[in-house]
Amino acid sequence: MNPVYVVMIINLIIWAGIFGYMLNLSKHMSALRKKLNKLSDNEH
Amino acid sequence: MVKKIWNTILFVWMSGVIVGAFIWATQQKALKEYTRIIYFHVPVSWITVLAFLIAAVYSFLYLKKRLLKYDAYAEAANQLGFLFAVLATVTGSIWAKVSWGTFWNWDPRETSIFILLLIYAAYFALRSAIEEQDRRAILSSVYAILAFVTVPFFVFIVPRIYFSLHPDPVINQTGEVNMDFKQRVVFFSSLITFTAVFVWMLKTKFEIAVMRLRIKKLEREK
């Protein structure tokens, strides 16, 4: 296999990893935001 | 729904840039196989300057309005700027190895990015050294503005004053982009996509900063 393809695949895997991490983070943050909103509502 | 569409476009676009850079784009005569590093090194360098600029703007806004969220935004932008500066240094160093035969030779461009990294590392040291929130915000805002003043000097002026092996930047003295059509397509797509990824990261960091402030406020109220 041409080494250029190997490097390209590694790059694609790294990008997919960063993208997946960012998506996961966004999901967790939405959940946390909802929790915080609830807490703030209870406080007031 | 709109967010999902944007995310899908971003994922496909960046994947396209990677595939385009490695397979589709032609090679520069002088650089040959190493041409590809341009599509990654230049965008991360551009984002470094952009992030530090955003940090300086938010620092200025904090000093003007005294809202802690602006200080938190400035810190977030500086953190990302520092990360991208490290990436620019690493990719530049790899480029130096294949072009000049050594990873590091204290070329004016390398020296200037090294000093810039030290300046911004000092910003984080300053923040961690002060416990009182408002005092930390004021001092680090002033420092972030002063630090940004050095950015154009180290990034654009120093490498032009002294002889440097670094190739002409995209915005050069002749005002021309020395690339063929395919290279331009991949290069500018890469610039746009990297900027979009950076905006996404920055927005996420801003949200985290705001949530942290909200949690602190809730804890104080309890």
Please characterize this protein's 3D structure.
The complex is a heterodimer of chains A (44) and B (222). Chain A is mainly alpha-helical. Chain A has one helix at residues 3-43. The mean pLDDT of chain A is 88. The two termini of chain B are 37 Å apart. Helix content of chain B is 79%, strand content 0%. In chain B, helix 2 packs across helix 5, helix 3 (68-100) runs parallel beside helix 5 (133-161) and helix 4 (108-129) runs antiparallel to helix 5 (133-161). Chain B has 222 residues and is mostly helical. Chain B has one domain. The interface between A and B is medium-sized, with 21 and 21 residues.
Radius of gyration of chain A: 19 Å
Outline type of chain B: globular
Summed up, the helix count of chain A is 1
Ends of chain B: how far apart?
37 Å
Judged by helices, strands and strand pairing, the structural class of chain B is: mainly alpha
User: Major sheet of chain B, described briefly?
Assistant: none
| Share of residues in helices of chain B | over 70%
Whole-number total of structural domains of chain B: 1
N-to-C SSE string of chain B, H for helix and E for strand: HHHHHH
Measured by residues with Cβ under 8 Å of the partner chain's Cβ, the largest interface is: A-B, 21 and 21 residues
| Major beta sheet summary of chain A | none
Determine the mean pLDDT of chain A: 88
Strand content of chain B: under 5%
Tally the helices of chain B: 6
- Helix percentage range of chain A: over 70%
Shape label of chain A: rod-shaped
Order of helices and strands of chain A: H
Uncertain segments of chain B are none
Q: Could you tell me the number of beta strands of chain A?
A: 0
Oligomer: heterodimer
Low-confidence stretches of chain A: none
